[in-house]
Amino acid sequence: MSSPRPLRAVVTGGSSGIGRATALRLAGPGAVLDLVGRDRERLEEAGGAVEAAGGRAILHTLDLADGTAVGRWAEALELASGLDVLVHAAGAIRLGRLAEATAEDLRLQLAVNLEAPFRLTRALLPALRLAGGQVVFVNSTSGRVPPGPGGGLYAASKHALRALADALRAEENRAGVRVLSVFPGRTATPMQEAVVAAEGGSYRPERLLQPDDVARAIVQALALPRTAEVTDIALRPHQPPD
Questions:
Q1: For residue 232, how many other CB atoms are within 10 A of its CB?
Q2: pLDDT digit string (tens) for 183-231?
Q3: Which of 9, 59, 70, 166 has the fewest C-beta atoms lying within 10 Å of its C-beta?
């Protein structure tokens, strides 16, 4: 009897935060993980952690704001045996009230938070269908609730991402593809540290969700028997920061 094929996963934002934590949770013996990120040094560190956990890391330095580059990269990816998991964990945020926001602020957030997941998912759908794969969209609480002052453009990109995930689920479930949206509250990541600094607050990571909290929830949902599907997971810190 032949042994099962090793898991193959693509994780954007794989160099830090929720993406890195999810990659480590997926990195069982034999697993092959394509980690996508902009910072080569952090990407190599994450790849080393994946290798230490028993997986094999393939590193890809890529700017997800460059739609043309994203499309070319996805089309060139070798996935002849199929793709089991695609995790969209990369994100971009620029805070600012709409009266002062620029078209470039909108373009950047739509490019990273919406267009890149769209391009990657579309290009990798044949491999996902082949493996009966699963797609994870790491969204935000901003994708579920009305935005506060200064967060309008970010929330707009995340509401659109939720719609994209819902449409993909409706279209691809019959092809065997499951789709999960995850809506974390404030999480102790480099992005959140920058957000708190921009807000003039005090960064207290111990009071926030931890990246591995979110990664655990994701991997547990992925492991659910194929008779069911988790469509949405919302998480928040147990003790919200002051």
A1: 18
A2: 998 888 888 877 887 777 888 888 889 999 999 999 999 999 999 999 9
A3: 166
Phi, psi torsion values for 29, nearest 5 degrees: -55, 130
CA distance to 60, 73, 150, 189, 200, per residue, from 195 (Å): 26, 30, 11, 10, 9
DSSP state of 4: P
Q: What is the DSSP string of 71-94?
A: HHHHHH---TT--SEEEE------
Q: Give the tokens for residue 104.
A: 């470039």
Residue 190 to residues 91, 92, 120, 158, 193, Cα–Cα distance (Å): 11, 11, 24, 19, 5
Q: What is the CA radius of gyration of the chain?
A: 17
Catalytic choice (21, 154, 211, 221): 154
List pLDDT tens digits, range 22-47.
999 999 899 999 999 999 999 999 99
Other beta carbons within 10 angstroms of residue 228's beta carbon come to: 8
Verify whether residue 203 is a known catalytic residue: no
- pTM greater than 0.90: yes
Enumerate residues 6+ apart whose C-beta is below 8 A from 229.
169, 173, 178, 179, 180
Taking the C-alpha atoms of residue 45 and residue 148, their distance in angstroms, rounded to an integer, is: 35
Dihedral-angle region of residue 123 (phi above 0 means left; psi in -120 to 50 means alpha; beta otherwise): alpha
Q: Is 96 exposed, middle or buried (0-12, 13-18, 19+ CB in 10 A)?
A: middle
